[in-house]
Amino acid sequence: MKEVDAIKDHDTIKLISYLLERQCGEQMRDVWDIGLNLALRISDLLAIRFSDIEGDTLRIRERKTGKLARIVLNAKTRERIAAIRATHPLHVYLFQSHRSPGACNRPPRPLTRRAVTKAFMLVGEELKLDLGTHSMRKTRGYWLYQQCKDLGRVMRMLRHQSEAVTLRYIGISQQQIDQDFLQLEI
User: Fold this and answer.
1) Per-residue pLDDT tens digits of the chain, which is 186 residues long
2) Which of 29, 41, 80, 140 is catalytic?
3) Is 137 a known active-site residue?
4) What number of other Cβ atoms are within 10 A of residue 67's Cβ?
5) Is 169 designated active site?
6) Which segments constitute the Tyr recombinase domain (predicted)?
C-alpha cells in the first residue's frame, strides 16, 4: 500500500473537500470533512452507525485494537451528521452505500474502503498529492501537534503506543523538531 501524507495547508484541505464533492458527490465530501474531525481509521469511520452517536458523543470499539473510543463531536461534525441524518432518516450507517444496484434488496451496508480510496486517489492525482484514506487521520494529528506541540496529547488522540510512530505518522521530521528548538527561546 502506498504511503500517504498529512495535508499541511488549510487551503488544500478545503480544496480537497470541494473537489471530492464536485467529482464524487456530497457523501465523499462528508467522509473527508467528518473523517478529518474524528481521526479514526477508515474501517472504523465507515462502520459508524447512527446508534453509535448519543448527543454530542460517538462511542465505538476500534476494529484494529479492540479499544473503546469515545469522541466528543465538535460543532462542524454535529452539523454534518445532522444533515446526513435529515437527508437519509432510514439509514443505519452514517456513510451508508445507496448507489449500488440492488441496494434496496439487501441489508444496509456502509460505503466500502475501496470506493473511498478510489475517490481520494482521483482528487489526489489532480492535486499531485499522495492522498488516501489515512490522510484524514494523519492530517488531524499533524494539526493538533502544530497547535499544542504536545506529542503525548496527539498520541492519546490517535491511540498510538509510541512517540516515534506518532511523529512518523503525522509527518514530523527530526529537522522540524530541531527547528522548533532553535526558534523557541525562553
Assistant:
1) 568 888 999 999 999 999 999 999 999 999 999 999 999 999 999 999 999 999 999 999 999 888 889 999 999 999 999 999 999 999 999 999 986 555 567 889 999 999 999 999 999 999 999 999 999 999 999 999 999 888 888 888 888 888 888 888 787 776 677 777 788 778
2) 41
3) yes
4) 11
5) yes
6) 2-182
